[in-house]
Design goal:
Helix content is 29%, strand content 25%. By secondary structure, the protein is of the alpha/beta class. Helix 3 links the parallel strand 4 and strand 5. It is globular.
């Protein structure tokens, strides 16, 4: 038995924030001292590394669970199913609902429960729960849905990833320009044909790597040190990803029995353009191959890094033909992969 993505949907906020909008920000070093060069230099270097030109922020009156609800509605419609037939709602996020203008996380009730309520699903046997797995959370949710369906515990699952990272960033940290908001969702069910998941890989590295992403105080020493924001050791994450993600992707592909030349697209977490390109380069080098043209669709240039939402949103855009010079056909082999806080890595091979 295999599982397949029977429906996909995403919600991309309308509020677009350009790099030029950061021209007047007061960016500081970790010790609170100012940079020795203007913001225009910071922004130019930032774009050169990350590839990000624009990102999306949620409308002020919407929370992460609202974005998720919109994405779930689209996935349900795309799958043409009755939502009452969903056995599990698996909601991947990292920071819960954070109301605009605050930085307090709200996860009671769970965001999955909130989505079930918004969808007006009455069936009490539709179990709703959240998972915290860093940026790879949506893929991990798909792997959990796979386990539920193969074990007979479920026939149909709704897996959603949503985040409003713009509300947990330190505006004095230049890394804040990376993050964005959005949601992506999928209906997962058993496959009775050749389509579906062929193999998967998942791992957590937590000895030296557990605090590569963390909550820390603002770089502005005049602000309350007990108020925390998302922080990261970018260089360590970069090196970890390059050393470990290609190996996980290769292990996953080897398990599937699919040859590297048969992979048509790689849908990787939209974290950093240069890092993603380097990961793909190393992956193909493991097979003594060069990277094929257009193998890796990208959305980060316009949407930024929305954490758990990047992969399902990318897949939705790809299917709907909304990524320039990118398309997929029935039967194509796709490789999904992600890396993030934990440090966690996961991947799966999928026949579309």
């Amino acid at each position: 038995m295999k599982i397949k993505i029977a429906g996909i949907g995403s919600y991309i906020p309308e509020k677009k924030v350009s790099n030029t909008d950061f021209g007047e920000h007061v960016f500081l070093n970790e010790d609170g001292t100012p940079f020795g060069y203007p913001n225009q230099v910071v922004i130019k270097k930032f774009k050169g590394i990350t590839g990000i030109e624009h990102r999306r922020y949620a409308e002020d009156h919407l929370n992460s669970s609202d974005l998720a609800f919109f994405a779930c509605e689209k996935a349900i419609a795309n799958a043409s199913i009755d939502p009452e037939t969903i056995d599990y709602i698996i909601f991947a996020h990292n920071f819960g609902d954070v109301k605009y203008g605050t930085n307090q996380s709200d996860m009671l009730p769970s965001l999955a429960t909130r989505v079930k309520n918004k969808l007006q699903i009455k069936n009490p046997k539709c179990v709703a729960y959240d998972i915290l797995f860093g940026c790879p959370g949506w893929i991990e949710g798909v792997l959990q849905a796979n386990a539920f369906i193969k074990s007979g515990m479920a026939k149909r699952c709704l897996v959603v990833g949503s985040e409003t990272l713009s509300r947990v960033v330190d505006v004095h940290d230049r890394d804040s320009m990376i993050y964005s908001d959005g949601a992506g969702a999928a209906i997962i069910e058993a496959s009775d044909d050749e389509t579906g998941m062929l193999a998967y890989e998942s791992a957590t590295y937590s000895i030296d790597e557990s605090h590569y992403l963390f909550f820390g105080k603002s770089y502005n020493i005049d602000l309350d040190p007990d108020t925390r924001y998302i922080k990261m050791y970018g260089r360590k994450i970069y090196e970890f990803a390059l050393n470990n993600v290609p190996l996980a992707m290769k292990s996953c592909l080897d398990t599937s029995g699919i040859g590297i030349d048969d992979v048509k697209k790689i849908l990787i977490h939209q974290a950093n353009e240069k890092m993603d390109e380097a990961i793909i380069q190393r992956f193909y080098k493991l097979f003594d191959k060069t990277v094929p043209k257009d193998i890796m669709p990208m959305s980060i240039h316009e949407l930024g890094n929305s954490s758990v939402a990047t992969v399902p949103t990318l897949f939705d855009l790809l299917i709907r033909g909304q990524i320039e010079n990118q398309s997929i056909q029935k039967g194509d082999i796709l490789l999904f992969a992600s890396v993030g806080a934990g440090m966690n890595i996961n991947a799966f091979i999928y026949r579309y």
